DNA sequence: CTGTATCCTCGAGGATACTG
DNA sequence: CAGTATCCTCGAGGATACAG
């Protein structure tokens, strides 16, 4: 299946296209997490969306899925090499954002739900 | 109006959220362009979408709009300081993409419609 | 606990016609 | 040439129930 893009930047926009992917990746930069943890951390996400987006991230090689054969089931997700190199690059974006927000939206018109300078 | 984000990276994803914005910005990195030029360059975009996305890019301070009072009308769009600093940062993303595609999709499974290493 | 299967809503984006 | 106004489609994403 051939995929076509207008420019190289769109590839990444595509990888992060889902409504929740950036958010999921953000938590995974802090370390591996199992499904239930992510469901709790990513506030507001539904079961369906979580599974779907994780599947896509895995397919795209950004996230690794490890299944522990036990009862009750346990599945752990973590960043792959590709995943962590991408999030590292996204750090630049974060820096740019700091500046942008400071200049265009001083005085708290823009709010971040993490206080960690994350992703 | 207060805007809320889960992490800083999402701000940029939001700025580029429209289906065509990255593509439009890409052409503007090559220099200012008037409406009709963009309509021709951004293949497949409709009149409506072009105006809409440009309006949003302008509102977000990434693109400047200059009107020439003449008949027939002439409007020219260009990158602002914010706009060109962002596209500069996106260059990092482009580099990452080169690598990613090379490793995960060797042999032309992924195609770019510009041959210019753009955006 | 993790994941699948359905059904439904809603808005981004396309097509087309029209104004100045 | 540049932009607005309508109408319509379609799929991403939400809610819920169920399975292993």
Textual characterization of the structure:
2 copies of one chain form a homodimer. Chain A is built from 5 helices and 5 strands; from the N terminus they run E-H-H-E-H-H-E-E-H-E. The mean pLDDT of chain A is 94. The first copy, chain A, has a 3-stranded antiparallel beta sheet. Chain A has helices spanning 9-15, 21-28, 35-41, 47-59, 81-104; strands at 3-5, 33-34, 63-68, 74-79, 110-112. Chain A is 50% helix and 17% strand. Chain A has a single domain, classed as Arc Repressor Mutant, subunit A (Orthogonal Bundle). The first copy, chain A, is α+β, with helices and mostly antiparallel strands. Chain B binds a DNA duplex (20 and 20 nucleotides) through helix 3 and helix 4.
CATH superfamily of chain A: Winged helix-like DNA-binding domain superfamily/Winged helix DNA-binding domain
Estimate nothing, just give the exact number of structural domains of chain A.
1
Number of helices of chain A: 5
CATH architecture of chain A: Orthogonal Bundle
Tell me, what is the CATH class of chain A?
A: Mainly Alpha
User: N- to C-terminal separation of chain A?
Assistant: 31 Å
> What is the mean predicted local confidence, pLDDT of chain A?
94
Helix content of chain A: 40-55%
Question: Beta-strand percentage of chain A?
Answer: 15-25%
Biggest protein-protein contact in the assembly: A-B, 46 and 47 residues
Estimated radius of gyration of chain A: 16 Å
Number of strands of chain A: 5
**Order of helical and strand elements of chain A:** EHHEHHEEHE
Q: Strand order, main sheet of chain A: write it out.
A: 2-4-3
